[in-house]
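Page 37, continued from 36.
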């Protein structure tokens, strides 16, 4: 486990050192679980958002976008169930005085069992070499099967207890598994209690007349309350979708794991409105579509898996997560939920306004069902960033740190480097920067030996370095170096743009979907 922790620590320090993520208001000792995206981070985040938006909105002629306000009428949250049911089960350790999410304590316990399975697989792979069949080993090795059964049993019981709101059994489970406080090692626990996660605020000039408001804990409700507005003004026919990216806020008591679980975060959600009765077919379709989007980034099929929910929300009839292998194990990256007609029906009831679709083919009105895909932009950022950070042994015995970001998402697409700071080389390099910056984010770097500049750009995740040298002055050619392979090729100055384009253009990447 320590190894995973070390990898994660490297991810966090690299994110700071190379201008991706800073602790919020750090000069005042920061604010727990709140982060700022720095000069490279904001570009990576923007590129991920854009990659999602193009795949979701631009390439689907029946999906449109909106940008709803963060503040909403307070009855919205009553209707959506957030006022009464948006809770986390919390437990305090009496000795360390630390508060934890009870379900996360149990899930972390199961993650340790999964780590033992991984250990067995690694040992067996070493023992059997090329003849090792991982699938067969997982299905037949008794020790692995026992671990599997134990882990599944624990999660099933946890899911059932949470569903039945049997918090006493959640505590009993923690005690039976002898789960200790990660900080103090103490097993002296309080009862489990529910805690509402919404941030409250006030709207109005004076305390007496102020209205109680909430910062939205999700972006979906802004879509639901605008369903009819969009449908009518866009003359949309079912099935159609409404997409949105934006900030949401949750008063996470146990915010942790860097930007994985934050109090202020960004979501990318799409609600797909469908005919009742077609939800199973659309659920399968969107699961497949969303997985293809993830795989198009080339981060390794083995790093993704589907996890079907044991515990369904009261309004859902199917739910699955796409989980990604973060440095701390497989965790939820995106949710795909079949939400039935719960949301629109609730808003219809609480607002007294009809939220129905008149289907000309059926010649009748009905409340549409909803299929949701919802992904955390910050989690996606962490998935991309942590997966891309590599330490590589080179042939000459040295190592290099390289951030192998998918080129389509990289903050800067190319760095232009004059070999020396004289002989007219900086002028040629600067001219190339001025030409390229209309199409890409490019950086100019003239400090240090060229080898050190290459290393710096590798660590920052820049896919290409273009070096201007004395030969450039003679024949208008430059050296272009590829980050991932470190291969260098001599190309004509007027080819540079096309070479970079081919690697970084969203069109080439999205066509894989």
């Amino acid at each position: 486990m320590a190894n995973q922790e070390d990898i994660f620590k490297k991810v966090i320090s690299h994110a700071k050192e190379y201008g991706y993520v800073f602790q919020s208001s750090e000069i005042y000792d920061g604010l727990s679980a709140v982060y700022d995206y720095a000069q490279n981070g904001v570009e990576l985040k923007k590129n991920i958002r854009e990659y999602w938006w193009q795949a979701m909105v631009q390439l689907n002629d029946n999906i449109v976008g909106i940008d709803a306000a963060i503040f909403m009428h307070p009855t919205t949250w009553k209707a959506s169930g957030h006022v009464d049911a948006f809770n986390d089960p919390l437990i305090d350790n009496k000795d360390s005085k630390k508060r934890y999410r009870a379900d996360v304590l149990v899930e972390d316990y199961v993650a340790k069992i999964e780590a033992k399975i991984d250990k067995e697989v690694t040992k067996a792979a070493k023992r059997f070499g090329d003849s090792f069949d991982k699938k067969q080993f997982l299905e037949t090795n008794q020790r692995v099967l026992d671990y599997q059964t134990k882990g599944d049993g624990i999660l099933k019981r946890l899911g059932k207890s949470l569903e039945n709101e049997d918090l006493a059994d959640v505590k009993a489970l923690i005690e039976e598994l002898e789960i200790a406080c990660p900080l103090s090692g103490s097993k002296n626990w309080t009862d489990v209690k529910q805690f509402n996660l919404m941030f409250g605020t006030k709207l109005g000039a004076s305390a007496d007349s102020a209205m109680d408001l909430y910062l939205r804990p999700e972006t979906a409700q802004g879509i639901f309350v605008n369903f009819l507005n969009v449908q009518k003004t866009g003359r949309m026919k079912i099935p159609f979708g409404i997409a949105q990216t934006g900030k949401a806020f949750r008063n996470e008591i146990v915010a942790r794991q860097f930007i994985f679980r934050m109090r202020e975060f960004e979501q990318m959600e799409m609600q797909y409105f469908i005919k009742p009765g077609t939800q199973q077919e659309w659920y399968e379709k969107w699961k497949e579509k969303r997985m293809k989007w993830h795989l198009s980034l080339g981060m390794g099929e083995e790093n993704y898996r589907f996890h079907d929910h044991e515990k369904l929300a009261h309004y859902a009839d199917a739910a699955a997560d796409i989980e990604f292998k973060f440095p701390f194990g497989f965790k939820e990256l995106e949710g795909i939920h079949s939400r039935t007609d719960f949301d629109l029906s609730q808003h219809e009831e609480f607002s007294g306004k009809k939220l129905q679709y008149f289907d000309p083919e059926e010649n009748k009105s009905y409340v549409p069902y909803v299929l949701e895909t919802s992904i955390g932009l910050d989690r996606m950022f962490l998935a991309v960033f942590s997966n891309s950070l590599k330490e590589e042994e080179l042939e000459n015995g040295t190592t290099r740190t390289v951030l192998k970001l998918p080129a389509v998402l990289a903050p800067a697409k190319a760095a232009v480097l004059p070999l020396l700071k004289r002989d007219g080389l900086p002028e040629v390099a600067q001219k190339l920067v001025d030409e390229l910056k209309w199409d890409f984010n490019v950086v100019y770097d003239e400090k240090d030996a060229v080898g050190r500049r290459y290393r710096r750009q590798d660590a920052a995740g820049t896919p290409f370095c273009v070096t201007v040298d004395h030969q450039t002055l003679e024949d208008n050619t430059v050296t272009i170096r590829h980050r991932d392979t470190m291969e260098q090729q001599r190309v004509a100055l007027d080819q540079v743009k096309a070479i970079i384009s081919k690697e970084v253009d969203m069109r080439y990447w999205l066509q894989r979907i």
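The first helix runs from residue 2 to 17. Flag for discussion at group meeting. Residues 1-73+197-390 form a domain with the BirA Bifunctional Protein; domain 2 fold (CATH 3.30.930.10).
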